[in-house]
Amino acid sequence: MTELLEEVVLLGARRAAPDLDAFVVVRADGPELDAYRALRRDVFVREQGLFTGSDADDVDDDPRTVVLIARAADGEVLGGVRVHPAVAGRDLGWWRGSRLVVAPDARMLLGVGAALVRAACVVAEDAGALRFDACVQAQNERLFRRLGWVARERVHRHGHPHVVVDWPIARIQRLASATKAALGGLLGSLVDSGPGFLGDDGAPVPGTDVVAACDAILPAMVERDPEWAGWCAVLVNLNDLTAMGASPVGMLDAIGARDASFARRIVRGLGEASRAWGVPVLGGHTQLGVPAALSVTALGRTSHPIPGAGGRPGQAVRVTADLGGRWRPGYTGGQWDSSSHRSSAQLRALTGVVASLRPAAAKDVSMSGLVGTTGMLAEASGCRAVLDVAAVPAPDAASYGDWLTCFPGFAMITTEAAPADVPLPPFVTSAVCGELTDGTGVGLRWPDGVVTDAIDTPVTGLGAA
């Protein structure tokens, strides 16, 4: 991967500069951008001789590149750094810091370099980065370690020893921990789903071919958007049945609302979704004069329920998703709406996707996101999963950082010992994008072959089913 690395330099000279004690870090534009590039030439070309003639490259011309500068109170540019996608083409969530430079009069004494590095980390994470790295001169490794970076590899660049360093980004781990980590301690002694089905999306009813699934909608979402909450209550429960390979037959609802008018809005969303999928609401419970609440139980049938725990090391991981649609207004980056524009025939076709794949294991992507859900499948199967980021199907309008952590409408994680070759609805995208291995958690494999830990612990604590 060394040919992809960019130069990051922080010089160690020290000189008092009382007039430069105050500075701010801002995004560069116009004359400030020109001043930053001139400073780079002075340091990298003339002072250090790392480049001949110019240190400019294609990254400077990439419109996605963000340049941060440290600006003194009098407007002088004291230093700067670039933050940008690490590879050309689609942004996969792999970002890089490069061309960090500090003016001679501002080195070390003022902490300009450290401030620029910290700001670069914020910009990268705000851009949706799931991986952020840099290549620093060896003498600056200590600074980056002090700032929380982790050294990964030692390389030789431009005639000088360098160290590849990684900034730990815990976005996926935090999401998985916030949504699922408590389940083992809460439910481990309560739930009895039968051998092999602990933690599954639906529960096979003993002695029958019935599968039951139950999901509640966040009360804040019910209050904010009751019609959409009703629609989603149907969507997520039918997805649970789909992941089990079950055909839906009916639903029960439980509604709480402050008054009949508000309850009617929830019912409107439930009714529209029920008719769209062709799955009736068989009954339920409604209570007025209480805070907003909504849950749905869905019933389906299959003689061969598909467990989430059927994965084994060596099996391929497949993602099958409906990439159509857009971000739900008000939930950009959090909820992808792939369903509200689909016809009834298309929605019903989705309910048979997993059954037709006949996988060894399956789970539908839920609150913990695509990576977190993959971790749940791997945990239940007693495995680790590794996903090839570039191979994961994703909509053009969604960043990979958001897509791998959002609720995607319809997306299924399955594993298979042999490639699946079955016809799927034409609006569905399906691709093998990883494998199960020995170990724990989920790793992300990047185009340079490096695997970073997205989740390094069991997701739910329920353990292998």
Largest sheet entry: 8 strands, mixed
Unreliable spans: 1-20
Report the CATH architecture of the largest domain: Alpha-Beta Complex
Helical content, roughly? 25-40%
Number of extended strands: 22
**How far from one another are the termini?**
39 Å
- The top-level CATH class of the largest domain is Alpha Beta
Rg on CA atoms, Å:
26 Å
Number of domains: 3
Write down the CATH topology of the largest domain. Phosphoribosyl-aminoimidazole Synthetase, Chain A, domain 2
Average per-residue pLDDT, rounded, comes to: 92
Fourth-level CATH superfamily of the largest domain? PurM-like C-terminal domain
- Please state roughly what percent of the residues sit in beta strands, choosing from under 5%, 5-15%, 15-25%, 25-35%, 35-45% or over 45%: 25-35%
Number of helices: 13
Main structural class:
alpha+beta
- What sort of overall outline do the alpha carbons produce when their principal axes are compared? elongated
Characterise the protein shown here.
- The protein is of the alpha+beta class.
- The protein has three domains: 2-169, Aminopeptidase; 172-200 and 307-465, Phosphoribosyl-aminoimidazole Synthetase, Chain A, domain 2; 201-305, 2-Layer Sandwich (60s Ribosomal Protein L30, Chain: A), CATH 3.30.1330.10.
- Helices cover 27% and strands 29% of the residues.
- It has helices spanning 31-47, 58-61, 112-126, 141-146, 171-180, 183-187, 219-224, 226-243, 260-277, 344-350, 353-357, 369-380, 400-403, and strands spanning 7-8, 23-27, 66-72, 77-85, 94-102, 131-137, 150-157, 160-167, 203-204, 210-217, 247-257, 281-288, 293-301, 316-321, 326-327, 336-337, 361-364, 384-388, 411-416, 429-437, 442-445, 451-455.
- Strands 1, 2, 3, 4, 5, 6, 7 and 8 form an eight-stranded mixed β-sheet that branches. A seven-stranded mixed β-sheet has the order 17-19-14-20-18-21-22, sandwiched between helices. The protein has a five-stranded mixed β-sheet with strand order 9-10-13-11-12.
- A hairpin with a 5-residue loop joins strand 21 and strand 22.
- The longest helix is centred in the middle third of the chain and has 18 residues, at 226-243.
- The two termini are 39 Å apart.
